[in-house]
Design the sequence.
């Protein structure tokens, strides 16, 4: 009995000894990693562009038609029937500003030996809330100022006025059918009368 107990204690001690070591007698250690952050490097550079201003031009100017109407024994005002198109100005980058003025000549009949409409008067009255619009919706320039009501004569009257740095790009002034009036005093004879309209562009603000 004593011998058997002694062997049992030795066996237990042997198992305890193995239990205190790792497999093969080595203890495993966790692996470690090192992360290196790259250093940013910036090289200065530029982007450049030179925009050369072009020439401001009138791309289109309207004619006005009053059609065929009855002559009258009394003072009469005739409303226009239509404008041929709008007044369109193109400014490709010129910063000086600009103006457009309008004048006319006497209404003259080319079929009756040059008779004129004595005392006749042409007037514009554009009732559109926004008569002047940039042709490109993303235009960043200030639109030119518009004279909506004007009596036209041989003395030029300003219709559009762009201050320096404004009115850059393409702008169109629209007119509706009845936006012009021709006043004719009593005492004029019938005929086919025409007035020459002069839309004048000046490359400077008024």
Sequence:
């Amino acid at each position: 009995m004593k011998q058997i107990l002694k062997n049992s204690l030795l066996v237990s001690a042997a198992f305890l000894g193995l239990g205190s070591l790792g497999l093969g007698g080595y203890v495993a250690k966790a692996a470690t990693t090192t992360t290196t952050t790259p250093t940013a490097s910036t090289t200065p550079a530029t982007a450049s562009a030179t925009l050369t201003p072009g020439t401001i031009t009138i791309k289109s100017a309207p004619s006005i038609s009053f059609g065929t109407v009855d002559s009258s024994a009394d003072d009469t005002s005739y409303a226009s029937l239509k404008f041929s198109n709008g007044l369109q100005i193109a400014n490709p980058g010129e910063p000086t500003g600009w103006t457009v003025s309008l004048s006319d000549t006497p209404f003259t009949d080319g079929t009756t030996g040059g008779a004129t409409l004595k005392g006749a008067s042409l007037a514009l009255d554009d009732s559109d809330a926004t008569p002047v619009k940039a042709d490109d919706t993303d235009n960043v320039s200030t639109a030119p100022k518009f004279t909506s009501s004007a009596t036209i004569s041989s003395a030029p009257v300003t219709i559009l006025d762009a201050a320096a740095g404004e009115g850059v790009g393409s702008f169109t002034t629209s007119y509706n059918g009845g936006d012009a009036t021709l006043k004719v005093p009593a005492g004029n004879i019938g005929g086919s009368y025409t007035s020459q309209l002069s839309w004048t562009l000046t490359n400077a603000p008024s």
Remarks:
- Residues 147 and 159 are 5 Å apart (CA to CA).
- Residues 57-69+84-202 form one domain.
